[in-house]
Amino acid sequence: MKVFQVGGSVRDELLGVEPKDRDWVVVNSSPEEMEEKGFKPIGKDFPVFLHPKTNEEYALARTERKSGVGYKGFKFYFDSSVTLEEDLKRRDFTINAIAKDQNGRIIDPFDGRGHLKNKIFKHASPAFEEDPLRVLRFARFKSYKQLHDFDLHEETKVLFGKIVASTELKDLSPERVWMETKKALENNFSDQFFKTLIKYHLTDPWFKNLKSVSCDGDLPELKWADMQRINCFQLSASLPIPNSYIKALESLKQVINFIESNNKSEKLRLLEKMNVRRNYEILMHFKQYESLNEHQDYLEKIFKSIMAIDFSVLANLSESEVSNQKQLLYHETLKEII
User: What is the pLDDT of residue 68?
Assistant: First the structure.
């Protein structure tokens, strides 16, 4: 039984970046031996185990063969005869096909270190084109600070074209597409994810309305809302968007409608609908958008004025009276501002 650190964690260490987590491959072992040593099995399609102390993932070395469509259309082969190099060869890019043994020795059969030095994404094998998810993973890798300025190898571009032509991107699950998108939104260079989708014609079918890129904001929800704004709020309706993202998007729409309205009554109605007291933090983030730059002071003054309103007078009113009194409080506070 031999254990090797593999994948993105080795890549990041070679780039001088502390990895968030580490993955491991086990060679010359079996599921039975892993369980005997206290590892907890979690894999459904192939043997993956959690370390009894660190909770890091340990997978038995395996090979794979395409048997269907999409990223799940593979059959896996694993036993103690599968070598480390065979396992590394099935990976997406050479920079992710580097391993490190328990003595710190680097195993790099596909010149991943050379490609790291030259800032190149190159496929580890021609089988790259069999998995459509890999092009989305590439777009997500481009959102990483340490990888955002890497280029795609010319030969790999050809394989990208084959994946697009196969139309297998449509066979990815909405959940997996959103997972890659969400991870990109959580990174420093989120805009690179969307720019990459456009550049390599990866927008159909999941991002077919993606035409422009703007990722203002320091929160994933804010970046997504800004991407929706710049694309006329028509981006990716088929993805399973979490409620926090939907709420941020609705708040942004309300802010934009508020700014564009010239009717004082309509403005007051929109402010009440925004629920400024509950959504104050996210609304204050929006005023920092470059697209709303000229309205920053105006929005801040309004939001802070609303936060200063004493709503305790509403406590003893009936439900029917609360709405009218709240509108009066808004009007009195904001009459000189809006």
Answer: 67
Q: Which of 184, 210, 241 is the last residue before a domain boundary? A: 241
Cα 328 versus chain centre, distance: 43
Task: Output the pLDDT for position 287.
Answer: 84
Residue 71: which pLDDT band, with cuts at 50, 70 and 90?
A: low
Residue 67 pLDDT level (bands cut at 50, 70, 90): low
Q: Which tokens is 279 given?
A: 């959504």
Interhelix angle 319-334/296-307, nearest 10 degrees: 130
| Of 84, 91, 185, the residue nearest 133 (C-alpha) | 91
pLDDT at position 148: 98
Q: Which helix (H) or strand (E) holds 151?
A: strand 151-152
Residue 171 lies in a domain: yes
Strands 106-107 and 2-6, sheet pairing: unpaired
- Computed on alpha carbons and rounded to an integer, the radius of gyration of the chain in Å comes to 26
Q: pLDDT for 186-195, tens place per residue?
A: 999 999 999 9
Domain that holds residue 226: 132-241
CB atoms within 10 A of CB 325: 13
Q: 153-188: b or e for each residue (b if 16 or more CB lie within 10 Å)? A: beebeebbeebbeeebbebbeeeebbbbbbbbbebe
Q: What pairing do the DSSP bridges indicate for beta strands 99-100 and 106-107?
A: antiparallel
pLDDT computed for residue 154 by the predictor: 98
Of 210, 136, 140, which is closest to residue 174 (Cα–Cα)?
A: 136
Q: Does one domain contain both 237 and 142?
A: yes
The percent of residues in the chain predicted with pLDDT above 90, rounded, is: 84
Which H or E element spans position 85? helix 84-89
Residue 196 lies in a domain: yes
User: Given 197, 217, 241, which residue is the final one in a domain?
Assistant: 241
Q: Is the preceding peptide bond at 109 cis, omega within 30 degrees of 0?
A: no
195 and 277 share a domain?
no
| Residue 206 reports pLDDT greater than 90 | yes
**Position with higher pLDDT, 8 vs 65:** 8
33, burial (CB in 10 Å: exposed 0-12, middle 13-18, buried 19+): middle
The pLDDT mean for the chain works out to 94
Pair (3, 105) in one structural domain: yes
